[in-house]
Amino acid sequence: MKKGIGLPVFSGVAIGPAVVYRKAQRTLPVPSGDPAVEKAKFEAAVETAREQLTALFEKAKVEIGEEQAAIVEVQLMMLDDLDYLDGVNLAIDNGSAAAIAALDTGEEIAEVFAAMDDEYMNARSADIRDMSHRIYDILCGNTGFTLPEGSFLLVAEDLAPSETIQLPRERILAFVTRQGSSSSHTAILARTLNIPSLVQSDISFDDAEDCKILAVDGFTGTWYADPDEETMDMLLAKQKEAQAARNALEAYRGKESITRSGKKILLVANIGCPEDAEAAVKADAEGVGLMRSEFLYLGRDTLPSEEELFEAYRKVAEIMGDRPVVIRTLDIGADKQVDYMGLEKEENPALGLRGLRICLTREEIFRPQLRAIYRASAYGNLNMMFPMVASVWELKAAKALCSKVRAELEEEGIATKDVPIGVMVETPAAAVLAHELAKESAFFSVGTNDLTQYTLAVDRQNAKLGEFYDPYHPALLALLAHIAKAANDNGIWAGICGELGADPKLQEKFIEMGYTELSMAAGRILESRKLVCESEV
Amino acid sequence: MKEIKHIINDPMGMHARPAGMLVKAVAPFASKITVTAPTGTADAKRLIGLMKLAAKQGMELTITIEGADEDKAAEALQAFLSANL
User: Fold this and answer.
1) What is the value of ipTM here, to two decimals?
2) Which of A103, A262, A338, A442 could form a disulfide with A420 if both were Cys (CB 3.0 to 4.6 A apart)?
3) Is the dihedral angle over the CA atoms A390, A393, A394, A395 positive or is it negative?
4) pTM greater than 0.90
5) Which fold has domain A35-139?
6) What residues 19-58 of chain B have any CB closer than 8 A to a CB of chain A?
């Protein structure tokens, strides 16, 4: 047995096989510009693919069965297909790099198969894509990451949103990352999924790869590789106890969240996609306090269309029904970059072109989102808020665009509802100007993660700054009190949607300050309701 | 030139695997070998082209073989077809 520590981001115990996530190195090699060199590279990659597929074929035959093996065998045969090879060579002759030629030619053929009037042949397009992606990955130096069957604990250096979004969430028992922090995206996802997880752990990839069973104790922040019998018994007992505690919280399901002095608090969930909305309903959330809409923009190669955005918002609106949903408009930039927007690399992205700043300078990106939100408004109880507001004029400009978009839709005969517009208060400037902003807003929702980082000038992605990232800092609490007062003075509601919303050490303080909405990971709703209902404030 | 006619027996038609095996079976021969199905014509040495035919059970294939080793190729093909398709 080997053990070590990490910073726990969600309590609970997970036990199972470990999988190491290695970053896909999708960096295109610099093209040589010489077709002969590119062709040689391609041929070498085909041979590597052949070795990989042959090994996979042998393994599949023994372990999975003839049917799976036959699929691999077809891919092996396709490696030698003259149409494919001719297509790649022609593309290289026309100036393509080997990797691009391999990918594009595969895509062309896959599209032909996908369009055929034959279900069996349609399905073969996936084989062709799989095969050409394999060659592409080999040419890009990607070592290959394949998920096993069944549930597993995922061990990684750190996970970006675009990476976590592609993982099969229902099969992940825990995250164990070597970097990250309690407010990094892995941590946020762990809390949404209610899975015990560690960040900043001292586990090595060798530890994880060598063990049969990995266990994570999210209460103490400990990991165990191949736990001995005594440890295993202790962990299983803890797991059982945690389950019992969860069951006890069930008494609060369906109850109103009211303090003993009669203050009604809205306990709502943070979500990223329609699947999260279902989890929120299951967790008995009273609405959605923060829909991080940028997840619809990540893990893809092109901007989502108005239609795709509309479908996602409509689904969330319908799932939540009468319950309020606050959609935060696009907050791309900073730690969430997407290549297809063609944004320049920035020295300091947290202070760069992000959030509302992009939306106001790139109307072609913002407009489809606003149209989608207004179109979806007819299906539920939607609100929207703008991220990264620092000045009153920004809010006014964005609101003006909203009015224009809504008027256009009405003219087109598309039904819309009133969508209350609020500010996500996350810059110190917005906090200081809260009284002015409140006159132009229907509500405030405080993003404590960014407000903390900007107020304290501490990078929240930098694990080394851990002790300086102090969410209980008096400066931050003073700003929070100021924001709530400005809201109350102007007759609008204020909520907390950052990680602090679920912090049991602060929830009573927030209610005292005058906040009436707390938004959090779905898994924290019931325990927060217990705290609210037992509170005297 | 040689010509072979064959009605597809395989209930799944000429799907990916037998198509791939056909490619392998004719690969050693220098002759030009063409497969014609009611759905189109393909080079027997090209897997993806054969798959695009989407030839089904009961369809008749006409295979023409032309080249120096056409006799041997025809013989091998005949054997392959009756055993695999």
Assistant:
1) 0.84
2) A442
3) positive
4) no
5) Enzyme I; Chain A, domain 2 (1.10.274)
6) 20, 23-24, 43, 45-49, 51-52, 54
